[in-house]
Amino acid sequence: MMADTSKKISELRQDLVCGDWVVIAVGRGKRPHAFSGAPATFEEPREMCPFENFSGSDAPQPVLQSGSVSVIPNKFPAFAKGVCRVFSKEGPYTFADGVGIHEVFVLKDHARYIPELSLEEMSDLIRAYRDRYKTVSREECIAYVLIFHNHGREAGASIAHPHSQLVAMPVIPPDVARSVEGSKRYFREHGKCVHCEMVQYELVSKKRLVDENEKFVAFTPFASKIAFETRIFPKVHQSVFEMLEDGDVTLLAEILQRSVARLKKGLNDPAYNFFIHTAPVGDVSRYDHYHWHIEILPKTSVWAGVEIGTGIEISAIMPEEAAEFLRNITV
After folding, report:
1. Residue 134 is part of which domain span?
2. Distance from C-alpha of 234 to C-alpha of 255, rounded to nearest angstrom
3. pLDDT tens digits, residue range 232-261?
4. Partner of 271 for a Cys bridge, out of 44, 76, 83, 299, CB 3.0 to 4.6 A?
5. Looking at the domain assignment, is residue 260 inside a domain?
């Protein structure tokens, strides 16, 4: 007997850049509001917060003050100053010291998160991201600079006070390397930037479009790794984040803040991570094919046996439906 295929159970979609497959499990039939859980925001007493006082003798001294944002060294860094690129061997294994830089972007207000910031304060944060990226990327030993933001304990935020982080490391992370290689391969085969191709298609089709302004566009990826994943791209091709111009800082702040606010309002304040994917540090001409962007990943699912055993991620809502839901939220 032939199986009844009139109702689709799932759909495999391939990421255009890295070639990874994802599964859109449409047969699970989840509606957007089914992804709402308990709010991720948590409270801590102001007097116990390590980010509330920078004036004591043992307080970290800011390396940058950008309006309402202070940038300080991380007290418990994953990477620290040291001797560059000294690799050692143990049998067949290779290791090296974690040489690099780890900093924290501390927002001024203890209990106002990104959706509650003024546009000026959000612009201060974006400007601090860019300015520290520019400075740190020129330091010796650095191969890649990652800027990221965790919201909620499920996303890895151990301190309630809103903050972002910068990690500069001596190696190119594997996820970035695969993205860069995929971008290079597409350019070699088609003579075009793969991300520019996606941006132009999404602007025309509008099926996965969430938001746009004069310089930036936000959409749910065709091969979304998780439900309500959103990516923000500059409309004009730029390979590295430091190319963000002064006049575009507020426009990026605006669309990033609105994207996060949509998640908060539509999904009851979920935990999320966002990070900036940019070309590696060094000769920018080597990475002309790449296109920097921001990825926003709400914690709408948990990896289980299939995901862990295969590396194939499963989303329980069509990206098109997720985009429509987010697009219709007024913020």
Report:
1. 66-331
2. 11
3. 999 999 999 999 999 999 999 999 999 999
4. 299
5. yes
